[in-house]
Amino acid sequence: MPCSVFLAGAVAASLCGCGGLSSGGANAPAFPDVINVRNPVALPAQIPAQRVPVGLSGDYKPDLVILPSGEMLLVMFQPVTNPNGTYQENMIMYRSEDGGQTWGTRDALPLLGREPYFTLLGDGTLFLTASFVSADYRNTEGYTYAIVYRSEDGGNTWTNLPILSENLSGLPPGTRATTRTSRNLIEMPAGTLLLGVGAATNIDYIWRSRDEGVTWDETLQVRAPAGYDEAANGIPWLGEFWFALAPNGDLLGFQRGYAPALPPLPGTQYPPNSATDDNTTLESLFRSHDGGATWTLDPPLGTTYGEMYPSLLHLSETNVLFTYTVRALQPQLGVQAVLGTVTSTRYALNFKSDILLLDEETPSNETSGGGFGNTVQAADGTLVTAYSYRGSDGNTHAQVVRWKSPL
Do the bridges between strand 4-7 and strand 346-349 make them parallel or antiparallel, or are there none, so unpaired? Predict the structure, then answer.
């Protein structure tokens, strides 16, 4: 039961035991690597970890989910330029039966789109959101649009729901404009499933389903709140929303947007090219008291320019892990995380100390490989985080890091 975010003091913690996992022979250490902690105060300077490469060179932006059976799925995409010069993006899936220590065969899914992102419902229904770019030669619409995939059998088969701008009621007939969805979907306590949908600029909807995403009510059109300039963002406001639900019932949305959509952070100026460079985007938090019909803008989240792609994981009733990507402007690039505590209305997070550097693979002379990954928790308590990085060869590579919570 997630809640809102506010900058707060360090989270008190102590390191748990890290035994019980094997990455090799009888004498191999369970966690042969480490996660470094920046500015350690309540945490140790290093936490034991195990890093497991997954996939092929060029794989990009992995995301994880654990099925009710305990099977772990990893999905990502790979950009491909064909011999005839055409371009396409292939969606790839791997499965693990041992909490991410080993991964099965590479499954090229018959699905279209980039940046696939999982949502698992309480009844086991699985969703993927994706963006199908206009550069992909298989895209016959001529513009980038969102697709939502749904599976009732653990990702073995999928149905698809393309979201085309000409089918949205708020746009002039025949409009052909980019559409995007929220990263995840969220189940409300009364059973309604919500999906954020955006098109062009200033056209945003909260889609609602009462049958686990089989059918949708698409009529709820919403607007960004005062204090947020959607035109300056240049892309749909609800695109890339990451939904959470506060214990008091508030619906929360973390959003990555271009920095000029918001006032500069206190004591700062916008980074150069921040109106067009999506490596310098800024994470913000929005709140709804009425199930998504109206929204307000919360105080600054505590992250800074160039930090994005958030996700939350509850470690206990009172503690959470906030995972995000640092993609530009400050070393170390890669996926990082902070610990937080739960109150009735918010998460108390500390971005000043005890920063978990989950991914330090990208060399200092390379640009970021995308990061992106979320964190999941296996049945034995092991945390698993997925990420991609750009290696010294200039190519992207995917890995997972397995580690124990320091709480």
Answer: parallel
Residue 224 identity (one-letter amino acid): A
Overall number of domains in the chain: 1
Helix (H, G, I), strand (E, B) or coil at 147: strand
Q: Which among 17, 77, 11, 20 is positioned nearest to 39, based on CA atoms?
A: 11
- Residues in contact with 224: Cβ distance below 8 Å, sequence separation at least 6, in sequence order: 202, 204, 230, 237, 286, 295
What is the domain range of residue 87?
4-404
At CA 364, angle to CA 60 and CA 7, rounded to 5? 80
pLDDT tens-digit profile of 165-212?
999 988 888 889 999 999 999 999 999 999 999 998 779 999 999 999
- Termini Cα distance of the chain: 18
Structure tokens given for 69: 């059976």
Which region, left, alpha or beta, applies to residue 90 given φ > 0 means left and ψ of -120 to 50 means alpha?
Answer: beta
Close Cβ partners of 156 (under 8 Å, ≥ 6 residues apart): none
Q: Is the peptide bond before 88 cis (omega within 30 degrees of 0)?
A: no
Are the CB atoms for 198 and 164 separated by under 8 Å? no
The one-character DSSP state at 217 is B
245: amino acid identity, one letter: L
Q: How far apart are CA 75 and CA 64, in angstroms?
A: 7
Q: How confident is the model at residue 354 (pLDDT cuts 50, 70, 90)?
A: very high
At 130, which amino acid appears? Answer: A
Structure-block tokens of residue 27? 């004498």
pTM for this entry:
0.92
Say if CB 187 and CB 122 are below 8 A apart: yes
- Asked whether the beta carbons of 215 and 208 are under 8 A apart, the reply is no
Residue 223 CA to residue 204 CA, distance in Å, equals: 6
Cα-flanking dihedrals φ and ψ of residue 230, to 5°?
-65, -30
The CATH code of the domain that includes 195 is 2.120.10.10
